[in-house]
Protein: Probable periplasmic serine endoprotease DegP-like
Organism: Methylobacterium longum
Amino acid sequence: MTETRPSVRTSRRALASVAAAALIAGGALGSGYLPAATPAYAQALPKTPIEAPEHPPGSFAGIVNKVKPGVVSVKVKLDDSASSNGDDEDGPSQGRNLQNVPPQLREFFRRFGQNGPNGMQPQRQGPRGAVGSGFIISADGYVVTNNHVVDHAKTVQVTLDDGRTLDAKVIGKDSKTDVALLKINEGSNFPYVQFGKAAPQVGDWVVAIGNPFGLGGTVTAGIVSARGRDIGAGPYDDFLQIDAPINKGNSGGPTFNVNGEVVGVNTAIASPSGGSVGLAFAIPAETVQAVVEQLRTDGKVARGYLGVQIQPVTQDIAEGLGLDKAKGALVDHAENGTPAAKAGLKAGDVIEKVNGDTVDSARELSRKIAGMKPGAKVELSYLRGGKADTATVTLGAMPTDGTKVASRDDDASGNGQPRLGLQLAPASEVGLSDQGVAVVQVDPDGPAAAKGIEAGDVILDVGGQSVSRPGDVATQIRAAESSGRKAVLMRVKSGKGQTRFVAVSLSKNAG
C-alpha cells in the first residue's frame, strides 16, 4: 500500500491540473463548458479607463446597415485585348484558378459551381470575365472601383445590395492610381456613400465590404495597420495597410471608418497563398477623390508637371550637402524648357517644401506635384549651397510619353571608406566628354566603387562646383574637409548618359 500512495497522489495532482486546465479552457470558450461551481474563475474584470467614444464598438451592425446598400458587385466581360490568363476574381491580370483559392474554400467552390459540376473546368465559351467590387458615390449612379477590375472591359454590370443587376459604362480610368469611375446606365435615387473628411490614424477600426470570390455583400473588420505604404504598384503609391480580411474580388470595394465614411479603396493584398493573411492595401480616400473629380469632369486625369529629375536625400548625401537631416528631394537636373528650368531650379538644389508643406522624400514630391492640375502656381522652398530660397512655378501638363514628374530611385547609399579610390583624367583628353573629369580606373575596394562609380563615368561637379581637371576634384575635396563635412557630393554622368549625385565619405588622405 505504501508503494501505491505516491502514485495515487500523483494521479490526483494530474487530475487537478487537468481540471484546472479545463476550467481555463472553458472560460475561453464560454460558460457552457464550465463546471457548476467555479467562483474563482467568475470574477469581473476591472473597468477600462477608455472613454466610450474611443472604445471599439460592441457591434459593427449599425455601420454595416447604414452603408451596405451603397456597395455593389462589379462583373465585367473582357475584350480580346485582355490577358489570356483566364477569368479573374479581381481583373484580367490574374487567372481564376483553384490553386489561388485558400484550401478551406476549394471544396466549397468545387461543390457550388465555381468550376462547373463535379469540379470540372467548363469549356470557355464567349468572352472572358472579371469580378470585383465598387461603391456608389452619387444618387445618379456614379460608381468607384479599381482600374484593374474594368481594364479591357467590353461590358460592365453592377449588382446592387437589393439584388438588381444593371448595366454600367466606364466613364474614365487611371492606371497610375488604379482608380476607375463607372456610371449606371439607367435609374436614379440610388443609395450612396460618402468619402471621409479626415484621414484615418494607425489603430483606427475599419470595416471592408465587397465581393470576395463572388460572394457579394461580405463584411470584414480590422484596424489600420500602417499608412504611407509603397508596395511598388505605381509611381504614386501611398497606401493604407489594413488587417481586415481582403481577398480576390474585394478589389475596388470600400473601407469604411466607424462613422460609415469611405477612407480607402481596397486594391491589393500581400499573400503567399492568394488568400488573406492580414496584409491588405487600400488607396486613401483623398487620392481617390482627386482622381474621381477629374474623371467625372474630363474622363481622364491631367497631372501637374515640374520637369525635374530628382533622387532621395540619403544620410550620406545630407552630410555631403551639410544638411542636418536626410529630408527633401535632391534635383539631379531640370529639363530644358520645363517649368522647373524656367523658374531657375538647378542641379544640387534640395526641394524642402511645396506651398509651405514639408517634403520628406522624393516620392512625396512626386505625389504632391502630380496631385495638382496643370496651370497651378506653386511655391517651392529649396536649399542651394546651404542657403534657403523660394521659386514660384506654374506647372505644366505631364507629357503623355511616360516621362515622370520626378523620382529617380538611384541608390546613393553605402558605407563610406577613408579614400576615394579613383584615378582621374580630364574628360576632354580621353574623348568621353567636353566637360568634367573622367574616371579612368576604380579601386574595387575603395568607397567610390561602393557607390557604383565605374571606369568611363564622368564627374561633372564636386561640392556644387564644376570640375574639368583632377586638381579641381582634389581642391573641392579639401574644401569640404576644411568645412568639417564627412562626405563630398559629386554629380556623376554614367557611360549611358544618365546623371546622378553620389556622396563619398572623406578622410584626411582622401583624394
In short: The chain is about 20% helix and 30% strand. The first strand starts at residue 71 and ends at 78. Residues 1-41, 84-88, 92-126, 401-418 have pLDDT under 50 and may be disordered. The domain at 304-397 is CATH 2.30.42.10 (Pdz3 Domain).
